[in-house]
Predict the 3D structure of the following.
Amino acid sequence: MYESDDINRYLFKQYGTGSVPFMLSAVPLTMLMVSLASLTRPGRGSFYRKSNPPDQLLELYSYEGSPFCRLVRETLSELEIPYLLHNIAQGSPRREAFVARAGKMMVPYLVDPNTQTSMFESADIVAYLKQTYAVD
Ligand SMILES: N[C@@H](CCC(=O)N[C@@H](CS)C(=O)NCC(=O)O)C(=O)O
């Protein structure tokens, strides 16, 4: 389906409580807010950067509201690197398993099975992705 509004309605009906939260359903206001967020990162995540795609899916532990995670997602998008996204927002029941795996609660956290690399720190992750997969 097309239309972000229809997709959100479908997702909340199918997998959520059935009703779309106000911050997503007040369409003109919602569009203004998300557009402002994108305006602060002009062009980022919107243009392809040539890359060597990995063989295996990368994994990113993240949550949508984190500015540090956004930086990593921008780079993954620009390089068109396929990845599995684990959302572990505040209150998520998946956090405990994450801490058991990674050793502490902090996102973003990248796992790259292609190079047996796991790392925290957005700036280090962005540098790693560019160094490993970008073709400049
Ligand atoms: N220096 C780190 C900062 C990462 C950071 O502060 N992440 C926050 C989210 S914005 C976090 O994990 N907070 C712990 C929590 O959500 O419980 C980086 O650049 O990646």
In short: The chain is about 45% helix and 10% strand. The first strand starts at residue 58 and ends at 62. The first helix runs from residue 4 to 15. The mean pLDDT is 95.
